[in-house]
Write a sequence for this structure.
């Protein structure tokens, strides 16, 4: 399977199965599009009004050479991986600990109902957190690196428990030959020197939530009284990011139907000095006024194109930044093993409520249908776990013919559930955006390689 497209002045050809990427001239681009279904003579006849006959023949011969070198039109071998994947034993690699079901902000798109959690506000106790870490160790098999995200609501509302759990984790990792990688996800309101110092010592990563421009952030991420959070959090986030040497963190925003011009938000964050940036489409119910809709796609595609072109420009100026969603691993080609498990929700990655209940991820917390078990008794609902296990890019019919399948994590199960009522489908709007991101990411690589040549 070959996917070809034009972006930012480049003619790009991706050989999907080998992962080979070719930047080609116009004649080769047109020859490739006709190659599989036509003979050399037919292609010459078809293109002779646009190019010289010699050029067309030369391009044809080059395409044939690439095919022989297994860099174009390579066969599809993914079926084997489906079988391998289904036989794999699942180990738990990561937990998202809901340290506080409470929040000092009232974000409009909050999965936690603006921190209210169906009226059941709660803080995780040290005992529940300890049991969660024990559960993770016990279910991690031979895997050494284990991820724990201190999440919320807002985890700094219960920060002593975070500190105590890190201490406990550090003791346990020695006993069990594990290595905990802790992450703190915070809205920044309570960030102070003490939290920053602790995080810089213990957290492998910190995720700092901000949506971008002041008006965008303040509309979606207000305090409960309605006032915006931007002015409170920006100085703290800047200080925090600098104190980590602009590494091992990212500012993370969400774009919605209300800021379809989100490239401006990404660039605003870059202009504030942030070097690690993630701005993602919202996960929402179809009925939410801020949900992304099909008719928003053309504008969103343009935004990704604009952003990618601007990133190339800034790179040339030595003023670059990382945009999480364009960071796909192209060097190693499509490493199937790495991309098999998708986001891992429900299998390798689980969310833990303040009471110790286990859910596939934070988006499913509170929906009893998805209650998997709890940290003391383990996974009880193996049916749901297995449903999530089979929910990956290799098991979905629509993914089999998708050019992005080796770079895609298989889409978001929560979005599939919100739009289709079950997790096994693909969420079309998300797919279109994913495909666009893959195209942009490849273009950026091509442009940077071009620069070094
Ligand atoms: S900061 Fe997070 S938990 Fe709090 S209201 Fe916003 S999205 Fe919800
Ligand atoms: S973009 Fe959609 S169809 Fe393509 S691989 Fe990902 S989930 Fe599947
Ligand atoms: S299901 Fe969706 S929201 Fe949940 S972890 Fe996966 S990608 Fe994220």
């Amino acid at each position: 399977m070959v996917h070809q497209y034009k972006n930012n002045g480049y003619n790009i050809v991706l050989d999907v199965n080998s992962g080979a990427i070719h930047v080609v001239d116009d004649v080769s681009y047109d020859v490739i599009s006709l190659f599989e279904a036509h003979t050399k003579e037919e292609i010459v006849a078809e293109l002779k009004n646009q190019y010289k006959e010699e050029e067309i023949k030369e391009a044809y011969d080059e395409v044939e050479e690439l095919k022989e070198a297994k860099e174009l039109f390579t066969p599809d071998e993914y079926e084997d991986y489906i079988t391998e994947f289904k036989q794999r034993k699942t180990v738990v690699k990561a937990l998202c600990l809901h340290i506080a079901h409470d929040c000092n902000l009232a974000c409009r798109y909050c999965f936690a109902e603006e921190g209210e959690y169906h009226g059941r506000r709660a803080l995780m106790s040290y005992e529940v957190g300890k049991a969660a870490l024990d559960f993770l160790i016990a279910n991690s098999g031979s895997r050494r690196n284990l991820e724990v995200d201190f999440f919320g609501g807002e985890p700094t509302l219960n920060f002593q428990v975070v500190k105590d759990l890190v201490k406990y984790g550090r003791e346990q990792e020695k006993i069990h030959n594990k290595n905990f990688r802790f992450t703190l996800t915070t809205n920044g309101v309570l960030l102070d020197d003490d939290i920053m110092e602790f995080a810089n010592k213990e957290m492998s990563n910190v995720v700092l939530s901000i949506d971008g421009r002041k008006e965008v952030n303040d509309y979606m991420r207000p305090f409960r009284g309605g006032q915006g959070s931007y002015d409170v959090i920006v100085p703290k986030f800047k200080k925090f990011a600098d104190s980590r040497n602009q590494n091992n963190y990212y500012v993370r925003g969400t774009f919605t139907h209300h800021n379809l011009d989100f490239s401006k938000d990404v660039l605003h964050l870059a202009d504030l000095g942030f070097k690690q940036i993630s701005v993602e489409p919202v996960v929402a119910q179809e009925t939410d006024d801020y949900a992304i809709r099909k008719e928003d796609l053309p504008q969103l595609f343009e935004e990704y194109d604009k952003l990618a072109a601007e990133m190339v420009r800034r790179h040339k100026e030595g003023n670059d930044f990382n945009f999480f969603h364009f960071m796909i691993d192209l060097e190693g080609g499509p490493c199937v093993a790495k991309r098999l498990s998708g986001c891992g929700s429900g299998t390798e990655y689980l969310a833990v409520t303040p009471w110790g209940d286990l859910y596939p991820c934070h988006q499913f917390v509170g929906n009893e249908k998805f209650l998997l078990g709890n940290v003391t008794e383990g996974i009880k609902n193996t049916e749901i776990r297995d449903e999530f296990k089979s929910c990956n890019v290799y098991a979905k019919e629509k993914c089999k013919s998708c050019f992005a399948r080796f770079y895609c994590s298989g889409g978001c199960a929560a979005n599939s559930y919100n739009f289709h009522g079950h997790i096994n489908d693909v969420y079309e709007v998300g797919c279109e955006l994913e495909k666009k991101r893959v195209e942009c990411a490849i273009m950026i690589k091509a442009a940077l390689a071009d620069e070094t040549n």
